[in-house]
Amino acid sequence: MKGCFKYKSVGYFLWTAGQRHDPSKKDYHFVWKVNYEDNKNYTEYPMTYINWHPGEPNRIENNDNCVNLFSNHDYTWNNQPCHFRFCFVCEMNKMMT
């Protein structure tokens, strides 16, 4: 993962599409926010599967509104501020031939 941030104890941090549903509410309601084309309008999907690292999500008052993975901890989830610069994982639609 050349160019990705690696921290000694947790490995690589990788962004997902997980975000807090309503950041102004400061609750633990996270969803998948997917943008298909215009980078302005998102479609939200409920998280039907969760894999939080023990003790996560935490720091609810510190704007930790986005979900990332810890590579050294079985890719469990963590919440971080969305402006951090991490690499990301993405899902791509199968190309039609």
Explained architecture:
Strands 1, 2, 3, 4, 5, 6 and 7 form a seven-stranded mixed sheet that branches. The chain has a single domain, classed as Mannose-Binding Protein A, subunit A (Mannose-Binding Protein A, Chain A). With 97 residues, the protein is an all-beta fold. The chain contains no helices and seven strands. The chain has strands at 6-7, 11-20, 30-34, 43-46, 66-70, 76-80, 87-88. The mean pLDDT is 84. Helix content is 0%, strand content 34%.
CATH architecture: Roll
Largest sheet: 7 strands, mixed
Low-confidence stretches: none
Mean pLDDT: 84
Write the SSE topology.
Blueprint: E1 6-7, E2 11-20, E3 30-34, E4 43-46, E5 66-70, E6 76-80, E7 87-88
Parallel strand pairs: 2-7
Antiparallel strand pairs: 1-2, 2-3, 2-5, 3-4, 5-6
